[in-house]
Amino acid sequence: MPKPVPTQQLIDGLLRGDRLALARAISRVEDNAEDAAGIVQAVFAHTGKAHLIGITGAPGTGKSTLVSALVESYRASGVTVGVLAVDPTSPFSGGALLGDRVRMTGHSGDAGVFIRSMATRRGAGGLAQASAEAMLLLDAAGFDRVLMETVGAGQAEIEIASVADTVVVVEAPGLGDEVQAIKAGLLEIADIFAVNKADRKGAARTVAALEMMLETGGAAAQTIMHHGQRMETGAASSETDAGEGWSTPVLETVAVSGGGVAQLRDALERHRAWLNESGGRAAREGRRLDHMLQTLVQAEVLARLERALTPALRGELVELMQRRQIDPYSAAAEVIRKLSR
Amino acid sequence: MPKPVPTQQLIDGLLRGDRLALARAISRVEDNAEDAAGIVQAVFAHTGKAHLIGITGAPGTGKSTLVSALVESYRASGVTVGVLAVDPTSPFSGGALLGDRVRMTGHSGDAGVFIRSMATRRGAGGLAQASAEAMLLLDAAGFDRVLMETVGAGQAEIEIASVADTVVVVEAPGLGDEVQAIKAGLLEIADIFAVNKADRKGAARTVAALEMMLETGGAAAQTIMHHGQRMETGAASSETDAGEGWSTPVLETVAVSGGGVAQLRDALERHRAWLNESGGRAAREGRRLDHMLQTLVQAEVLARLERALTPALRGELVELMQRRQIDPYSAAAEVIRKLSR
């Protein structure tokens, strides 16, 4: 086995924008390598410049194609972009996917684009943490925009809200996603809705349903979508909490032909400007760092607990409990005492 | 407000089999009252005698009616029964439900039966812990059999395996539950399958499908059920891990008329005898107490963490991170230091 590249060399390289160093640093974070924490610690002071964008949507919405088109649009105006494609459903590492993505976007020769896939080697919670850290590395490496793309799968699309400055939720006509959006709480996290494949039948209805959901806060539109047709509702308009002064746009895109992509990029830029002016950016970063802090502390505490509550100790206490010589609460107190020592 | 009954009085009453004391003690555990742990500690030495039976199944299987019929069958032979009906989907406490259940079973005047509903006031994890503790209280109160009934809803039917000596999974014809059983891992936790509403069309097919699943370990039957008809499979029989010497029976019951209920009770008694002879009972109790120990320790550790990581401290550390004067890992280490002090 070749000797691993020293941590400091990776850090220096990453901060210079060296792609190989960046890729290796992300791998160390992904693998939760021994120096993963040290890398994040060292580059943290250089973060906070990039606009962090989360893009989520159900499979079949053409989300990946939209991300590629968006990257192209950014590059056309000279803006550099780092992309993290996170798949919480796949246990495979980024290797193979990475190649596909680079080919797909046609940006393999462009130093202003860096694309990386991440999968769930460390479990769902670990992946969320690793992804948040990888975002910091891309930010520190100097990319102007950092995009994180996740498959809308259960918890993941909610997690994205705690990682990004701006969240784009991608929908498509005829997937029944409007209802899904409400169920999963996507309505609350979306800063921008993109109805992709907008050249398909039903696009107008999807747009209308989303707009009505945004107006009424979800309740009315839920009825509409369940019945599969638009109808008048008497529900009072209960303003959604999209943040003061930002009205969540519903955009139509056709990613394969690039249709509407410039408008999506414009909306992202407008949201970025709004975040900066309103103080929303600092607020979101604060929530993000608070979330990261709590995750790190909890992980450390539980790791310590696992080290203290060895199988031998567990076996010993279970035996005492089975003989009714100690009760579960006293046994737990015994473990806590050992932990505090 | 009337003065609450002193803890010691509840404990003494419960151990004498006083119903009101038992009901109050369960409420304290359910509410996670200050003396909840003390009650469990005090009665623990008196537990380990009852046969703990878990009964789970999807809504619509007639699970509750089956439990009532089973209680009646036990009572006819002089065996006392405590019943805990746990609904992880309902946020409401047992009060109202309790009345319904007592009326329904027609045992309101029988001192040999105690029926109690529990709901999810403490959240899913809290409910599981409270239910496990309530089982201990019913055991200590001297009931010969303690039944825990849960709605088959996600995680709950798996949790039941860590609470009971014997698990009965209730199915019904035509619900597509055979496939659901495999998905949720019910096949692994079932000691007895009861196909209720066995007078309905499709019962024989449900029984056959379950028997084939048990024979093949699930894989073959999954194909069968997906195609909706029985067919020969070449799959090798890969014995399920139902425990050595116990072959999971698939019984037909018609709870409303009492059909097959005596056979279900017999199967439960046979499983109980088998557990005692094979040492399986001690093994399951050990797993159960190990699980309870880990849950208690983890809850205590996380409670301590929450006390240490105050909003003020979080706010302070987030501000330092936002100024890039401290990184997330160093901030986390700071919290851990405070926690250990």
Description:
- Chain A has 341 residues and is of the alpha/beta class.
- Chain A folds into three domains: 1-46, no CATH class; 48-232 and 241-279, Rossmann fold, CATH 3.40.50.300; 309-340, no CATH class.
- In chain A, 54% of the residues lie in helices and 12% in strands.
- The first copy, chain A, is built from 15 helices and seven strands.
- Chain A has a seven-stranded parallel β-sheet with strand order 3-2-4-1-5-6-7, with helices on both faces.
- In chain A, helix 5 (94-105) links the parallel strand 2 and strand 3 (113-119).
- The longest helix of chain A has 29 residues, at 280-308.
- The first copy, chain A, starts with 6 loop residues before the first helix and ends with a helix.
- At the A-B interface, helix 3, helix 13, helix 14 and helix 15 of A face helix 3, helix 13, helix 14 and helix 15 of B.
Please summarize what this structure is:
With 341 residues, chain A is of the alpha/beta class. Chain A has 15 helices and 7 strands.
Topology readout:
2 copies of one chain form a homodimer.
Chain A: H1 7-16, H2 19-30, H3 36-43, E1 51-57, H4 63-76, E2 81-87, H5 94-105, E3 113-119, H6 123-140, E4 145-151, H7 156-159, E5 166-171, H8 177-183, H9 186-189, E6 192-195, H10 203-216, H11 219-227, E7 250-252, H12 261-278, H13 280-308, H14 311-322, H15 328-340
Parallel strand pairs in A: 1-4, 1-5, 2-3, 2-4, 5-6, 6-7
Helix pairs in contact in A: 1-2, 1-3, 2-3, 2-6, 4-12, 10-11
Residue windows where pLDDT falls under 50 for at least 5 positions of chain A? 92-100, 220-242
Largest sheet of chain A: 7 strands, parallel
Give the tally of structural domains of chain A. 3
Which overall shape of chain A is indicated by the principal axes computed on the Cα atoms?
globular
Contiguous helical run count of chain A = 15
Kindly provide the radius of gyration of chain A, computed on alpha-carbon positions and rounded to a whole number of angstroms: 23 Å
CATH architecture of the largest domain in chain A: 3-Layer(aba) Sandwich
What is the CATH domain class of the largest domain in chain A? Answer: Alpha Beta
Distance between the termini of chain A: 40 Å
Q: Could you tell me which chain pair has the largest interface and how many residues each side has?
A: A-B, 40 and 40 residues
Please list the strands of the largest sheet of chain A in the order they lie side by side.
Answer: 3-2-4-1-5-6-7
Order of helices and strands of chain A: HHHEHEHEHEHEHHEHHEHHHH
Number of strands of chain A: 7
CATH topology grouping of the largest domain in chain A: Rossmann fold
Please, what is the CATH homologous superfamily of the largest domain in chain A? P-loop containing nucleotide triphosphate hydrolases
Class computed from helices, strands and strand pairing of chain A: alpha/beta
Q: Kindly report the oligomeric state of this protein.
A: homodimer
Q: What is the average per-residue confidence, as pLDDT of chain A, rounded to a whole number?
A: 83
Strand content of chain A: 5-15%
Helicity level of chain A: 40-55%
